[in-house]
């Protein structure tokens, strides 16, 4: 009887917390929009506040943590599925010649600087250094794109180049994450020939990932259109079609998780698989409701996992990482971009690549889920600070630069 009452009280508190999140999410989004801030910043801060209030109770309740973890995973799937849905592989391949030089320059620079700062600056482990380097290589395209849209310059050549380079950044970061998750157990166990085993495992992962991508390609070319038409004729409902597409996306994401990758990787390629079909892309408007519902939970859960004391203690580490993350993206983009555009345009493009939000936090979140020793509280909090500051400072600078 006592256990039943305890379970009932926990369920009531859990539902109350979920209700508060649903109430505050649109308010937070509206406040961020009016302040000119990315919504991810507001949701992380909201999660930090909720975590401060609920942590004493949540620590003793596995159900609470499990429910929010599942909601956060659904948020990751919704986030990456929409990224893939709004991309187009043919367009990316067509833009590859002009965008690849900038993409390679800033990604390789970010990987190198991130690893060196972590491994030799802070003397972190090899596994942690690789996690940070991978997170450094990503870019939050949504943050900068919103500023370009507000200034009416997104449809210019340099605006389209920004989208191409940022999408390539995210795609490469997701692929690197797949390899990283595969070799993480080897790096943690250590032993003789660790690098040889890691290289062998990386090759195996690349082969499995190539087969998975091939499966997504075959689905996109030979199955997706028939699936979409069949569901449309069967249900005669646009919302039912959207739910079916979401079901397929979640299934592909689960297959990726089963193959040893992550839900994020599967969701991205599931979105790419549906991006070829104009009818499926038109569901993006209806899919927006699911996106708006689940995506905040990912960022809110990030905030809930961040302890305020750890956040304050990570200020010095976060400052160093912020400077390194900012400089490497600006310089890594500026230098190759100057070969095809003016220095002013190249600098604007470099500043646009600075924000780290969705993919960078997905990398930290996924690796922390494997082993918290790889991404301890201090490092996790430091990267949360990097995300908050880069997503706040970069739009302010960018808005002024574009206004000129």
Order of helices and strands: HHHHHHHHHHHHHHHHHH
Strand content: under 5%
Question: What can be said about the biggest beta sheet?
Answer: none
| Strand tally | 0
C-alpha geometry? globular
How would you summarize this macromolecular structure in one to three sentences?
Helix content is 86%, strand content 0%. The chain is mostly helical and 404 residues long.
Describe this structure in words.
The chain has 404 residues and is mostly helical. It is built from 18 helices and no strands. The protein is globular, with a radius of gyration of 21 Å.
Please give the structural blueprint.
Layout: H1 2-35, H2 39-58, H3 62-85, H4 89-121, H5 126-137, H6 141-150, H7 157-189, H8 194-222, H9 224-235, H10 238-258, H11 263-275, H12 278-282, H13 284-305, H14 308-313, H15 315-337, H16 343-352, H17 358-370, H18 377-403
Features:
404 residues; 86% helix; 0% strand; mainly alpha
């Amino acid at each position: 009887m006592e256990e039943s009452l305890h379970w009932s009280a926990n369920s009531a508190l859990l539902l109350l917390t979920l209700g508060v999140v649903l109430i505050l999410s649109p308010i937070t989004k509206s406040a961020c929009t009016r302040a000119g801030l990315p919504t991810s910043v507001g949701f992380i801060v909201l999660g930090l506040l909720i975590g401060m209030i609920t942590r004493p109770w949540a620590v003793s309740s596995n159900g609470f943590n499990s429910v929010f973890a599942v909601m956060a995973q659904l948020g990751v799937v919704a986030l990456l599925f929409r990224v893939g849905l709004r991309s187009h592989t043919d367009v990316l391949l067509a833009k590859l010649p002009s965008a690849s030089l900038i993409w390679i320059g800033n990604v390789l620079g970010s990987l190198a600087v991130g690893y060196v700062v972590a491994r030799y600056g802070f003397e972190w482990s090899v596994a942690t250094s690789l996690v940070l380097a991978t997170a450094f290589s990503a870019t939050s395209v949504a943050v900068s794109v919103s500023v370009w849209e507000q200034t009416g310059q997104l449809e210019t050549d340099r605006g389209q180049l920004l989208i191409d380079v940022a999408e390539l950044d995210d795609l490469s970061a997701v692929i690197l994450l797949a390899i990283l998750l595969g070799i993480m157990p080897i790096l943690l166990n250590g032993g003789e020939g660790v690098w040889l085993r890691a290289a062998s495992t990386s090759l195996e992962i690349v082969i499995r990932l190539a087969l998975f991508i091939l499966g997504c390609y075959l689905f996109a070319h030979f199955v997706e259109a028939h699936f979409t038409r069949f569901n449309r004729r069967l249900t005669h409902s646009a919302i039912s079609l959207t739910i079916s597409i979401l079901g397929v996306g979640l299934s592909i994401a689960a297959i990726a998780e089963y193959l040893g990758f992550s839900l994020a990787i599967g969701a991205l390629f599931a979105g790419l698989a549906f991006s070829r079909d104009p009818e499926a892309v038109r569901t993006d408007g209806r899919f927006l409701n699911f996106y708006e519902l689940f995506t905040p939970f990912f960022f809110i859960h990030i905030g809930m996992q961040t302890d305020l004391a750890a956040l304050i203690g990570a200020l010095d580490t976060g400052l160093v990482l912020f400077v390194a993350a900012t400089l490497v993206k600006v310089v890594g983009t500026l230098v190759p971009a100057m070969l095809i555009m003016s220095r002013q345009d190249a600098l604007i493009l470099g500043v646009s690549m600075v924000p780290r939000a969705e993919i960078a936090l997905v990398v930290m979140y996924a690796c922390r889920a494997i082993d918290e020793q790889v991404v301890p509280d201090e490092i996790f909090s430091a990267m949360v600070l990097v995300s908050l500051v880069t997503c706040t400072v970069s739009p302010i600078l960018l808005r002024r630069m574009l206004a000129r």
